[in-house]
Amino acid sequence: MFKVLVSDPLSEFGIQKLLEAEDVQVDRKTGLSEAELIDIIGEYDALLVRSQTKVTAAVIEAGKKLKAIGRAGVGVDNIDLTAATNAGIVVINAPDGNTISTAEHTFAMIMALARRIPPAYKKLVEGEWDRKSFTGVELNKKVLGIIGLGRIGAEVAKRAKAFNMSVIAYDPFLTQERADKLGVKFGTLDDVITQADFITVHTPLTKDTKYLINTKQFEKMKDGVRIINCARGGIISEKALYEAIVSGKVAGAAIDVFEQEPPVDNPLLKLPQVIVTPHLGASTVEAQENVAIDVSEEILHILHDEPFKNA
Ligand code: NAD
Ligand code: MLT
């Protein structure tokens, strides 16, 4: 029997997929500390996580039988990839299943930011009928700057076109052909930064994208620009964003992901111009089913020495 440890909450559809294989036993143990995980990981052939479990080098070192680590989602930044590669463990993700949900969440954030829905809601439920403080802006004819035109960025671009926004995108791997197909203007990072009314980031967090948006970039932006991050905390410097909002350069920001999650004493959360959600981009019934099924299928392929993808 192969033993699979599921250490973060995972849709039941994924568990069922794993259990369809008669030679697989699934243990669900969530909320483990690193030490607790290290204590038990040696019994398992595969580990399946979402984003809460930090699969550190020490966990990997203790996972003597591990053949595969599956991530039910896109970002694998909670897994020490170097340690896994050195140990000969395959790391796979589920890159497609939550694309639409995250693009839709991004658009919900853009609209909530433009029309100031969260602060208006708060005031009304607190008893105040205030129709003066929440004048918003239209999306119509505004420029949306997209940094990272991959799966999610492209879906955001399509939705923006439906709102009659013009879209300019920067992605070092973007081709003119793909930009044309999406009806998107192909720009440099500087073009996007200087021309956009709304800027949304959709890159992975890597050493190249860490603080890609920093004080220097904020200085070049249009006055009153609005910023959205539903990708990864740290692509935009939170300190620089805070200063740009307080100075009046940035009119508002919508943030789903943080440099530290959950955020602790984060001053951005105190600013009325900022709206936030607790990393909910992929939190839909559909996305969680999709990623759980996709990653479970791949884990089974690896355990059974069958061809697999998304490594
Ligand atoms: P993807 O790999 O399809 O797209 C990422 C794009 O970023 C690629 O086209 C790549 O070329 C581009 N890129 C890489 N480096 C860049 C750079 N320096 N400058 C500009 N572009 C660069 O990934 P995706 O599925 O679209 O996911 C995008 C991000 O969203 C990832 O960080 C992922 O972890 C995150 N995500 C968040 C949630 C959430 O819950 N908020 C859900 C899903 C994905
Ligand atoms: C992802 O990278 O897929 C996201 O952060 C979504 C998640 O795991 O909740």
TrEMBL record:
<comment type="similarity">
    <text>Belongs to the D-isomer specific 2-hydroxyacid dehydrogenase family.</text>
</comment>
<dbReference type="GO" id="GO:0004617">
    <property type="term" value="F:phosphoglycerate dehydrogenase activity"/>
</dbReference>
<keyword id="KW-0520">NAD</keyword>
<keyword id="KW-0718">Serine biosynthesis</keyword>
<keyword id="KW-0028">Amino-acid biosynthesis</keyword>
<comment type="pathway">
    <text>Amino-acid biosynthesis; L-serine biosynthesis; L-serine from 3-phospho-D-glycerate: step 1/3.</text>
</comment>
<protein>
    <recommendedName>
        <fullName>D-3-phosphoglycerate dehydrogenase</fullName>
        <ecNumber>1.1.1.95</ecNumber>
    </recommendedName>
</protein>
<keyword id="KW-0560">Oxidoreductase</keyword>
<comment type="function">
    <text>Catalyzes the reversible oxidation of 3-phospho-D-glycerate to 3-phosphonooxypyruvate, the first step of the phosphorylated L-serine biosynthesis pathway. Also catalyzes the reversible oxidation of 2-hydroxyglutarate to 2-oxoglutarate.</text>
</comment>
